[in-house]
Design goal:
The protein is built from four helices and 15 strands. With about 220 residues, the protein is α+β, with helices and mostly antiparallel strands. The chain has a single domain, classed as Endonuclease/exonuclease/phosphatase (Deoxyribonuclease I, Chain A), CATH 3.60.10. The strands form three sheets. Strands 3-4-5-2-1-15-14 form a seven-stranded mixed sheet. It has a six-stranded mixed sheet with strand order 6-7-8-9-13-10. The chain has a two-stranded antiparallel sheet with strand order 11-12.
Length: about 220
């Protein structure tokens, strides 16, 4: 299964989505920072499962309807940072879907995630990640679970990785940095946490209109 995650940078990169899906043929597309009313219902062979409704910077999830049946959706608000309270960019920071593989009859959970911005403390983001993993799991006890997105965590990933492992999950980074601004500040912002999946590889795709690069995650159930 191939999953693409992309932070559209306030919807600036939305015009790339048709070409991105055509070029890489993902099974699932997870978006952050999108203008939900401007999203199409379908991109290539992918259909819109759902999108957040109360966010200024929205989350969305598309899936291949010829391969999967949508079983359920869960949208979650998480503990707020000071930036969230003042600027109110996102009430909901997780959008999760339970889907069923039509051919194999197996269910799994996939989620699009957007952590609090860099103005917040890492401790808050760790709290958000743990809470998101717990809440997403409620879509199906014991099911394979994959959460991709913008974790806003460029430094001290060793601590984050240990936190995630202690929680029973794996943290996986891509093969190159996923964020560049002004060609000076770079880092791995976009990655995956998972349980019950084998992460075969995560590839950083070329940068275009967004300050983030899309990541292509190739996985299979353990």
């Amino acid at each position: 299964m191939k999953v693409i995650s992309y932070n559209l940078n306030k919807h600036k990169a939305a015009g790339e989505l048709t070409e991105l899906v055509s070029a890489h043929d993902p099974d699932i597309l997870c978006l952050q920072e999108c203008d939900v009313p401007e999203l199409p219902e379908q991109i290539g062979g992918l259909v819109l499962a759902d999108a957040t409704q109360s966010n200024r910077l929205g989350l969305a999830l598309f899936y291949r309807a010829s391969t999967f049946h949508l079983q359920g959706i869960r949208m979650l608000g998480l503990k707020k940072s000071l930036h969230d309270r003042i600027a109110k960019p996102a009430h909901e920071r997780v959008l999760a879907a339970r889907v069923r593989d039509i051919d194999h009859g197996r269910d799994f959970i996939v989620a699009s995630f957007h952590a609090a911005p860099l103005t917040a403390l890492n401790s808050l983001r760790r709290h958000q990640i743990r809470a998101a993993l717990d809440e997403v799991a409620l879509l199906g006890e014991g099911l394979p679970q994959l959460m991709v997105g913008d974790y806003n965590y460029p430094l001290f990933k060793e601590s984050l990785g240990q936190t995630v492992r202690d929680h029973g999950y794996s943290l996986s980074l891509s093969d190159d940095h996923t964020y560049t601004r002004y060609r000076v500040f770079r880092g791995h912002f976009d990655f995956a946490t998972s349980k019950g999946f084998e992460i075969q590889r995560i590839t950083t795709l070329p940068q275009k209109s967004s300050d983030h690069m899309p990541i292509l995650v190739t996985v299979r159930p353990d």
